[in-house]
Amino acid sequence: MKEVQPMAAVNGVVTRLEEARIPVMDRGFLYGDSVYEVFRTYDGVPLFMADHFDRLAHSASLISMEISQSRQALIDEIRSTVQATGATREHDLYVRYQITRGVGAVDLYPGDVQSTTSVIIVKSVPVWNPDYYRKGMAMAIPRVRRNPVDSLDPNIKGGNYLNNVIAVTQARQLGADDCVMLDHRDFVTECGNSNIWFVINDQLKTPDAGNLRGLTKKHLHIALAAAGHQSVETPIDLDQVSRASECFVTSATREVMPCRSLRLEDGSQITFPEGGGEVTRRTRRIFSGYIRSYINRHSEDRLL
Q1: Which end of the chain is more exposed for a tag (fewer CB within 10 A), N or C?
Q2: For residue 62, with 0-12 CB atoms within 10 Å meaning exposed, 13-18 middle and 19 or more buried, which class applies?
Q3: Model confidence at 112, in pLDDT bands (50, 70, 90)?
Q4: What is the pLDDT of residues 246-268, one digit of tens each?
Q5: How many domains does the chain have?
Q6: For residue 247, what are the domain limits?
Q7: Angle, alpha carbons 35-37-43 (nearest 5°)
């Protein structure tokens, strides 16, 4: 199968990814003053596209950004960029669209910035290490804590990810694949760029605060409920984590990915079933079926 050519569009101008340019005075570059979304495609159909656009608008509202581009204009730009890659419906694609506040003065206050900048990136969906699914990821709790929600709302899916970059870096330095971030009270929040779930006392739980309202998480709740299985969002502290029998993460490109271990700050380690336990494996099967059904119902969104 022919390889996909990575492409980008800046304010509607489509180029090869490596040729894309933004002005150095763009506030997204200078300050991380931007919001973004990522979805993947199956059979040319974007997964949960309407939800992603709703969340983009919500993120923008939380930072008082008025997006100049209409939703339809952005969809049209995404479609043009996707088609420029040479992809067919057999190619699974990664689509990232970012809106920056635009070009302005070197000043924290946005002032009279005239229009927002759109940046679209389309390439093949990431190929995760197959061992992450076959065996599971090794996780670690880093020293850095998640930004307090009253300091920087985690539901602003924005361009400033330094908190997460530090956390993932510290976890990698500990020999882990990803981090599990705690808040200042030592409650679990999220991973570097995914939501985390635990099976505790035979109940499937995910943290209820301090994390992005993940769309994979949202739809997984729906899929599980439709299949007759319960899942809850609730505060999860380290005492509960120590009693967890299974663990997995969810995100747009990972879907349901098992974890095999979690290193605590004192160096001790919790282990989970290799490749995921019974609940994790069942959850993966249920969500895969849910995705197939979703794609069949949303063929009108197809980008190719």
Answers
A1: N
A2: middle
A3: confident
A4: 999 999 999 999 999 999 999 99
A5: 2
A6: 130-292
A7: 160
Q: Please indicate, yes or no, whether residues 220 and 271 belong to a single structural domain of this protein.
A: yes
Please name the residues in contact with 169: beta carbons below 8 A apart, sequence gap of 6 or more. Answer: none
Whole-number Å distance between alpha carbons of 183 and 93: 34
What residue has token string 């069949």? 296
Q: What CATH number is attached to the domain comprising 147?
A: 3.20.10.10
Tokens of 212: 């992005």
Distance CA 263, CA 281 (A): 22
Q: Residue 231 corresponds to which tokens in the numbers above? A: 């899942």
Beta bridge partners of 199: 204, 246
Helical ranges in 112-161 per DSSP H: 130-134
pLDDT of 65: 96
Closest of 201, 208, 299, 216 to residue 256, by C-alpha: 216
Angle between helix axes 215-226 and 49-62 (nearest 10 degrees) is 130
Q: In this structure, are 157 and 109 located in the same domain?
A: no
Q: What is the pLDDT of residues 23-56, one digit of tens each?
A: 999 999 999 999 999 999 999 999 999 999 999 9
Mean pLDDT of the chain: 97
Look at residue 74 in the predicted model and tell me its pLDDT. 98
13 pairs with which residues across the strands?
Answer: 10
Sign, Cα dihedral of 221, 166, 159, 76 = negative
Same domain for 145 and 260, yes or no, is yes
Indicate the pLDDT class of residue 111, thresholds 50, 70 and 90. confident
Structure confidence at residue 291 as a pLDDT band (50, 70, 90): very high
CATH number at residue 98: 3.30.470.10
CA–CA distance, 12 with 77 (Å, rounded to integer): 6
Residue pLDDT, tens place only, 202-218: 999 999 999 999 999 99
Distances (CA, A) of 213 to 9, 58, 153, 217, 250: 27, 11, 11, 7, 11
